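Below is a filled-in request sheet from our internal design queue. Each sheet records the structural input a requester submitted and the sequence that came back. We keep these sheets so that new team members can see what a complete request looks like end to end.

REQUESTER: design group, bay 2
PRIORITY: normal
MODE: inverse folding
CHAIN LENGTH: 197
BACKBONE (tokenized):
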């Protein structure tokens, strides 16, 4: 996939510079994780080991942040091959028919404590729902040992899997269900700055 950066600089009425830069998500140093309650007693953790996408960001105007990301469903891993195969099956993500999860941001705002809330469309298993990502940390720029400029970000979100058509479950003998409907998402993203054109 080829990405192109666009760096634009404008001036607001208060003469504050506005510089938007484009960043490419680095899948080797990015974690897209999730956790879900199992048997109503503990959390099972997993992650998607592949992700690609771009982020547009202006440190002076974080509300201008825009995210476009894709995740191959087949890259799911919970460190248990049999469970991973089940998660890829039609009971859950149905990876053969719906091989990608996508997120396309629609807007952002700065909330309490400087947390940036990014609202966008999450498409999973053929269903699109609006969700909000709470970006709890955005780091400064840093050059790596190869001279590549990087920036990091951490975000969280909560979704209900049933809203995306993932309803598989089992009723427990003592009451309750085997798998919670609530899923917590955690993202730790490393990005590389695109060269100006």
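RETURNED SEQUENCE:
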């Amino acid at each position: 996939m080829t990405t192109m950066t666009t760096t634009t600089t404008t001036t607001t009425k208060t003469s504050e510079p506005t510089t938007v830069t484009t960043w490419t998500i680095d899948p080797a140093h990015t974690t897209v994780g999730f956790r879900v309650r199992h048997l109503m007693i503990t959390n099972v953790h997993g992650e998607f080991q592949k992700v690609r996408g771009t982020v547009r960001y202006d440190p002076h105007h974080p509300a201008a942040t825009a995210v476009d990301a894709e995740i191959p469903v087949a890259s799911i891993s919970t460190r248990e091959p049999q469970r991973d195969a089940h998660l890829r099956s039609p009971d859950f993500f149905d990876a053969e028919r719906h091989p990608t999860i996508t997120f396309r941001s629609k807007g952002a705002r700065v909330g309490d404590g400087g947390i940036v809330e990014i609202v966008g469309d999450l498409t999973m298993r053929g269903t699109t729902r609006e969700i909000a990502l709470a970006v709890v940390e955005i780091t400064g720029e840093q050059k790596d040992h190869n001279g590549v400029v990087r920036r990091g970000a951490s975000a969280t979100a909560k979704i209900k899997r049933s809203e995306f058509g993932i309803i598989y479950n089992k009723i427990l003998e003592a009451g309750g269900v085997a798998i919670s409907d609530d899923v917590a998402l955690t993202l730790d993203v490393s990005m590389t700055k695109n060269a100006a054109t």
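SHEET NOTES:
- The helical segments are 81-88.
- The first strand starts at residue 8 and ends at 11.
FILED BY: M.R.
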